[in-house]
């Protein structure tokens, strides 16, 4: 059997397994049969079905969407910047979105979810562009240092605004990450937007593959790099901003998953985008499930326990490149 079909089958099984595990496991555990019965009779008038369908199901679906969006955003940022360490949190996009959302919440407390997404996109775009202009795409180390420094500064400003305005719980949500408190309306708003944006990137796969080459080579075969870089970066920042508006600041996921996928299926974007989206979704669903198992521990802590060793591995493996 073709290797791609084997991997696709494994991912499909992984999606189903992670979905049912996440439905079954949490502060309250349920059997597979109970979950199956609730899915087959979603409007049954009993407390277990209501808990599964109104609380746990929206949370799992949002976790899958966020995993998809953050991971795909990381893959695109690595391609556009020619930098293996790029991801939304490293580029300051998450911190910029976070700060802008907190500002808007303070100034306009009745703002809608769509308003939060637009605000997050504006904040993330501004910070991401500033960091890219500062580092000029040419130094992975400068990118990490600039991104980390500016992100810490923005986090300090965000915390100041939160403390002075009595938004402690809001701050905890954005710093720890997590898909608690989601509703099906969020799922219905985000699903078509995320699907269309990722589909556009898949349709641009050939152009994104050319972006992997040097600027001179891409220019020699007639590609208008500026247009494709702007469009793909716009989509990546938008995906990251939606994720921040949904679950707060998520770290490492946008770097971790694309690297895992590129090790398995290579760098060509048609496969890499699809596998990154699905594996990212599965990864975040499982990370959120583990966070839920331990009394809602920060999901970023779960991701960091896996992501930090991987980050060190990348630095050791590619250290000569970054030196």
Automatic annotation (TrEMBL):
It comes from the Bacteria. One of its GO terms (cellular component) is plasma membrane. Its main location: membrane. It is a multi-pass membrane protein. Keywords: Cell membrane, Membrane, Transmembrane, Transmembrane helix, Transport. The keyword Transport applies. Pfam families: FecCD (PF01032). The chain crosses the membrane at residues 6-27, 60-80, 100-131, 143-163, 183-204, 230-252, 272-291, 298-315. One of its GO terms (molecular function) is transmembrane transporter activity. SUPFAM superfamilies: ABC transporter involved in vitamin B12 uptake, BtuC. Belongs to the binding-protein-dependent transport system permease family. FecCD subfamily. This is Iron complex transport system permease protein. The lineage of its organism: Bacteria, Bacillati, Bacillota, Bacilli, Bacillales.
